[in-house]
Write a structure and sequence with these properties.
CATH architecture of the largest domain: Alpha-Beta Barrel
Radius of gyration: 25 Å
Structural class: alpha/beta
CATH superfamily of the largest domain: Metal-dependent hydrolases
Largest sheet: 8 strands, parallel
Shape: globular
Oligomer: single chain
């Protein structure tokens, strides 16, 4: 088959002088091959559990409506892969076909994340989870042999337990030679005392307040030269656990999951302790990142350890407060002033030591606003799909505190339901230029430089031997 560019893509490529890197496309795994690899890794019984996992939609339908909440069942993605566009479906499944079409799509290099493997990252079944990670990583290394000058498949690294993550890093990166990794940024833990209730979980976000030590994992990432990227769904927790509508659960869920992990890593001090690493949060856009950045600056100003003394109950002049309330409080208050010390100084004003550290930024390693800006500008990356108009916020210094520009990374998301035609992706991203939201240099950063910087932060040779290396 001949795959020629449509005129619109040809015109766009004629107007730019830099490569285009797809920072987050998707491949669709061929399930029979994955099953065979799972069986090789862990045996037939585990392969059968993989089949059951792949049929989870039917299990959801079989649970009575009034029992879904107890079992943690919610309306998950359904009809989520290309169907009417058979060519696009096959493109995501066959690396040879994907390679043949990259020029047609206007893409020079594609970083490709899995599909079924993402659902396996946080499976509560440890034996199945480990087997799935191992099988998928073998799948990627085998099928993409000979194509990695144009495409890099992303290894899956389950983060439920640090030793499990390290073992898979050593296998996927150290043995198989894969150069990019994706992790679950959320680990669900049973709530103590409610272990028999499947839906009763608390959310471990891997950094701040985690009851596991993930520092050895980040250290291993540094040693192996891989940048941690996080692709976790926020479906099924908080307000996104509805039983009726996937759309209700879907809206904003990637942003919610990315924000949780980002906030945890930041306050947990991970970027400060591991300065060689960059961290990417995928598919949630950048608007939440700008919001979190602005909120941290504002909260730090008012709740850093020195500023907190302004709120110290010991500094309240109680006698003056009584006099003012006696004079201006009116009868309903003045008649009850004799009860104020016993009843009125508890809510948000307990005079006793609050317990824990009074410096809630100490763990982060942050010493001031400059540090906050540095982490968000230079260490955090945000995966942004082409049709999201909010992408422009990353490059809007007038709207950003301290004029910071954040690192938005172009993410096609080809292979999933929100891309009806793969050929539409580049033109949709170009609209940011056409509408005057990004200038030439900002669009280049979005479509190329930021993805390049993310992948080379820990591994300067990431693109050696690729078509991108020839054009740097």
């Amino acid at each position: 088959m001949n795959f020629e560019r449509i005129a619109e893509i040809e015109q766009i490529r004629g107007r730019i002088d830099h490569p285009v890197i797809d920072g987050d496309g998707h491949l669709i795994e061929f399930a029979p091959l994955v099953r065979d690899l799972v069986k090789e890794e862990a045996g037939e019984s585990v392969a059968e559990r993989y089949e059951a996992m792949m049929g989870s939609g039917k299990r959801f339908r079989d649970i009575p409506h009034d029992m879904k909440t107890r079992f943690g069942a919610f309306r998950y993605t359904w009809w989520g892969l290309p169907s009417a566009n058979t060519l696009d479906r096959a493109t995501s499944m066959a690396p040879d076909l994907m390679r043949a079409r990259l020029d047609e799509l206007g893409l020079d290099f594609a970083i490709l994340y899995g599909t079924s493997s993402l659902g396996a990252l946080s499976s509560p079944d440890e034996e199945l989870r480990r087997a799935l990670a191992r099988a998928h990583n073998r799948y990627y290394a085998e099928l993409f042999t000979g194509h990695r000058d144009r495409m890099e498949p992303v290894a899956v690294i389950p983060m439920m337990e640090p030793d499990e993550a390290i073992a898979e890093l050593d296998f996927a990166v150290g043995e198989l030679g894969l150069k990019a990794v994706v992790m679950n940024g959320i680990a669900f833990r049973p709530i103590p005392g409610a272990e028999d209730v499947p839906g009763a979980k608390w959310i471990d976000t891997l950094g701040h307040d985690s009851d596991r030590d993930y520092d050895p994992v980040w250290k291993r990432c540094e040693e192996l030269g891989v940048s941690p990227t996080f692709h976790h769904a926020g479906l099924g927790w908080g307000s996104r656990a509805g039983r009726k509508s996937y759309v209700y659960n879907h809206l904003g869920h990637f942003a919610a999951a990315g924000e949780a992990t980002c906030r945890s890593l930041f306050l947990g001090g991970v970027p400060k302790r591991f300065p060689k690493l960059a961290f990417a949060f995928l598919e949630g856009g950048v608007a939440w990142g700008l919001s979190l950045y602005a909120a941290l600056l504002g909260v730090y100003e008012k709740r850093n350890v020195e500023a907190m003394e302004h709120l110290n109950p010991a500094k309240l002049d109680r006698a003056k407060l009584l006099d003012l309330l006696r004079e201006y409080g009116g009868d309903p208050i003045s008649k009850r002033l004799d009860r104020m010390y016993d009843e009125g100084f508890l809510f948000l004003h307990d005079p006793d030591d609050p317990g824990g550290s009074r410096d809630e930024f100490a763990e982060s390693g942050i010493e001031g606003p400059d540090d906050i800006e540095d982490v968000f500008k230079n260490r955090f990356y945000f995966g942004c799909e082409a049709d999201d108009a909010m992408n422009a916020l990353a490059f809007s210094p007038k709207l950003s505190p301290r004029g910071a520009e954040l690192k938005a990374v172009f993410a096609s998301d080809i292979g999933h339901w929100d891309i009806p035609d793969f050929r539409d992706v580049l033109p949709e991203a170009w609209e940011l230029r056409e509408d005057g939201l990004l200038d030439e240099h900002q669009w280049k950063a979005f479509m190329y430089s930021n993805a390049y910087d993310l992948m080379t932060a820990a591994n300067p040779g990431f693109f050696d031997g690729t078509v991108v290396a020839d054009r740097v």
